[in-house]
Amino acid sequence: MDFITVDKADRVTTVTLNRPEVMNAINGGMHHELQAAFDDFASDAEQYVCIVTGAGDRAFCAGSDLKAVAERGAHPAYPASGYAGLIERFDCDKPIIAAVNGLALGGGFEVALACDIIIAADHASFGLPEPLVGAIAFGGGLHRLAREVGTKQALGMILTSRRVSAQEGLRMGFVNEVAPPEALMATTHRWVGEILRASPMAVRASKQVVYRGLEEPSLADALAHQADYPAYAAWRAAEDTMEGPIAFAQKRAPQWKGR
Questions:
Q1: 184 and 225 share a domain?
Q2: Is 136 found in the same domain as 73?
Q3: Quick check: 73 pLDDT over 70?
Q4: 164 and 238 in one domain?
Q5: pLDDT tens-place string over residues 15-59
Q6: 241 lies in which domain range?
Q7: Lower Cβ count inside 10 Å, N or C end of the chain?
Q8: Phi, psi of 234, deg, nearest 5
């Protein structure tokens, strides 16, 4: 990998955007390296949670590398799962957490929004400033932000290209927790630890039920159809689903197998 690093330890994959000299801006090569990293995480039965962060303390990701775009005369072709190999990755039921260690602008904010949880350093900031350079946030940011914070709040950011602080992101609802920069990764790993206490099969089923249920036309439809969702069906048939009650009855910690 030339533009990212990938570390695996204790069921956790950490993907670090590693171009700090350009605030971790994403070029064509990084798009495809990220696709490969997330493909590997999704398919690795030993990996349960993914953390995405940026190298250095200035930026999580400043978005697309516009200098590279100007030199090529066009944006690079995106990989199979879309921008950064993530924004159109709708089939990964494992949790993905963004640890935002600075600026998350444009495509960088879109990457964070595509994660399930956002933990932000208190100096982080977020924005979709694409209109300032004659572009739009077509990497999912317009859709996800409006769905997560409501139309008026989202348009307030989008139409003005306004940047908001981590604290405002927490108030708006797209940030889960704000931490001092030196405690960002420790805070993120605390969230990971809390996730890992639970059955990975139940966690994945829960994530899939939430996202698929939101696509249903009504709550009644979501409840009626959830038994047909693949991760729900896998959870119903899993060894882990019986391990929980057995461990509770035996007054011991459950031994999750992820199957």
A1: no
A2: yes
A3: no
A4: no
A5: 999 999 999 999 999 999 999 999 999 999 999 999 999 999 999
A6: 200-249
A7: C
A8: -65, -40
The residue whose two tokens read 């249920």 is 213
pLDDT band at 137 (very low <50, low <70, confident <90, very high): very high
Q: Are residues 129 and 13 in the same domain?
A: yes
Please say whether the beta carbons of 14 and 37 come within 8 A.
no
Q: Is 99 in contact with 53 (CB distance < 8 Å)?
A: yes
CB 91 within 8 A of CB 69: no
What Å distances lie between residue 186 and 87, 179, 191, CA to CA? 26, 9, 9
- List, in sequence order, every beta strand (DSSP E) within the chain: 4-9, 12-17, 49-54, 59-61, 96-100, 103-105, 117-121, 125-127, 164-165, 177-179
Contact 42, 81 (CB under 8 A): no
Phi-psi region of 163 (alpha: psi -120 to 50; beta: other; left: phi over 0): beta
Cα 39 to Cα 49: distance, rounded to the nearest angstrom: 13
As beta bridge partners, residue 259 has none
Answer yes or no: do 153 and 235 share one domain: no
Active site positions, annotated: 110, 130
